[in-house]
Please model this.
Amino acid sequence: MHDVFDGVAMWRVWHLFGANEVRNRYRRSTLGPFWVSISMGVQALVTAFVLGYLFNQPNERYLPFVCLSLVLWNFLLNTVCEGANTFIGASDLILQVKRPFTVYVLQTLWRNLIILGHTVLIFFVVAFLYGLFPQPVYLLAVPGLALLLLNVGWAAFLSAILATRFRDVPLIVQNAFTVLFWLTPVVYMPNQLGGTVEYWVRLNPLTHILEVARVPLLLSSPPLESWLVAGASALVGWAVTLLAFARFRSRIAYWL
Amino acid sequence: MARIAADRISVDFPLYQGTSRSLRHALLANPITTVMRGARHVGGAITQGQGGGVVVRALDDISFTIADGDRVGLVGQNGAGKTTLLRVLAGIYEPTGGTVAMEGHIVPLFNLTEGMMPEVTGRELIKIRGTLLGFSPDQISGMAADVIEFSELGDYLDMPVRTYSTGMLVRLAFAIATTVTADILLFDELIGAGDARFYEKAQRRLERFVLRSSSMVVATHTREVLFKWCNRCFLMEHGKLVTSGTVADTLRIYDERRAKL
Model:
């Protein structure tokens, strides 16, 4: 636990490093990090038009939905996948100086949060074009996004620990997410399914983690069930992660 | 105040590459490797761990104390465990056996280019290194002035470090590293920098820097360094601490042992 507190306290380090990594990725390009906004926007719009046509969905409802879903999903996917490589990628730094491991995890989270800040702009543009202006229910997005972040946080942390020991983990995580993308209502709405399939999809915690962050921004209130599942997942996930971390922290440097 | 007390520390590295089973198989079955077993080799002992995997014993039952004012040189062949020992002292590896008690602020200077990204400018690099060393923005601007003056890089500080020559990069890294104040300094080969004129200046700065800290541990192959900077010297071999004494005594034993090989 000390490691976690010390890590958070070293905010200057992860803050600077996370931001620097984003900056370096887009240095010398004219648009800088707004390239992620653009590529996200193109991806979301194309997906929305094609699937909207296939599903026969009205654009004004479906387009903002798909944009937001893909933005959040990409945040989740990238953070956890990059999370798996957190310690492996930072091995040079880890073998130089003793520093709380949490610093590197927070660096990954912060970097992806900055990127989320850029991609989510696309959703706001689309939402405003279709007249979805902020309403009081927007405030629910704050705890919703916080829950999403908490869940993404433990998943990234845990996969970072596991991946350092078992180098297959980053590949497993990547493959799992390709499958999960279709098993989670990202590009379709849960109620589009109906019947038994919807029941099964609602057993997937990712559905609820996505819902609590997504639904308020689309101007309705997430069901209680989603809040409970997302909250429970965050609690259980962090408990497992912190136990695993406490158990294996001293071994991580040896595994590198 | 600085003090390090190591009590019977050992470090075992588990080896995960490949399957340990087939490696064990090879060790037992292959006539060539069978002959090789027990033969002289550099590095720590390769043994079988409890789980049946292969384990490298990088440090083997090492005890010593380093008191305030001690400047210790570590000598030994490649793979003797010098770097591993430094990493244990830096707190990077927690020993698998034994304990280390440490007092004082420890600053490891193993790689001066830590956190160096080719696209950042010299000025940004000062900020990055300063942050990594745990300085606040105020301290960093104080440090920056000193580094800029010493490194003589002038306008290049606003250029990306990718445009620097190796010498310029070393100047900058050296200047940044030597602004630190620590109780215990750890070096893996002592740092040096630059062309002839700069070398003199760097030596003076290094001297002040080392004297500012109360203790130092340096792994080195350079005898000049040992005689100039160290008052004690540890000889390591296959992860064991063979002897510790004055620089002259330890080096004499080292030479005798090498002559016997």
Observations:
- Residues 19-23, 29-38 of chain B have pLDDT under 50 and may be disordered.
- The longest helix of chain B spans residues 196-212.
- Strands of chain B lie at 3-15, 45-48, 54-66, 71-75, 97-103, 106-109, 184-188, 215-219, 232-237, 240-245.
